[in-house]
Amino acid sequence: MARDLTRLEGLFVGGSGGAAVAGAMKYATLVGRPQKILVFLCDGGNKYVSKIFNDDWMRENGFLDETGLGTVRDILGTSERKKVATASSSSRVKEVISTLKALGISQLPVVDGGKLKGMVAEVDLLRHLVSGEHTFDSPIGGLIESDYATVTPETKIELLQGILADAKVAIVTERDEVVGIITKIDLIDFLARGAPSLIPPPAERDG
Questions:
Q1: Cβ-contact 178, 85 below 8 angstroms
Q2: Which residues are registered as beta bridge partners of 111?
Q3: Is the separation of the CB atoms in 189 and 164 below 8 Å?
């Protein structure tokens, strides 16, 4: 949208301005009646010349190439998915450990009142128990961490790669519901399974 504003309207705005206009247009579509909408464009495009206005950067991050490597939905799979196991901040340490062990996983999203509050990981539980300050019956509220990112099923794989470079895991949400968790190894496995289509064919040899 930032690029369209520059190309079509002569407004050299940055990502925040583009996002604001995109949001206003989406809102106008949802309302479905004529109205005046005021949008503040608070940033300039000069800071984004090497990113938003750079075709290579846009392509590498999945904004120009519509085919790309796919989306998060492709990693989760299109078949019927099981409900993602979660914990609440009042869950006991022993309950969370039991869930992690039964499912063979290493972290659980923490959801209170339908809202994602964070994540609790096995390493946090281990540190909690080794310290000797708490017990198996202690609630996990104090162990909730924020070393994660949230994505949607429509997030492109190119963007997910960058997200997982900075965050431990990506929690997938759809209409505020947690529908999946993606770790670095999940992404690696997905790319490995699709490797033949990503590797160019070998050059033909003379003779």
A1: no
A2: 116
A3: no
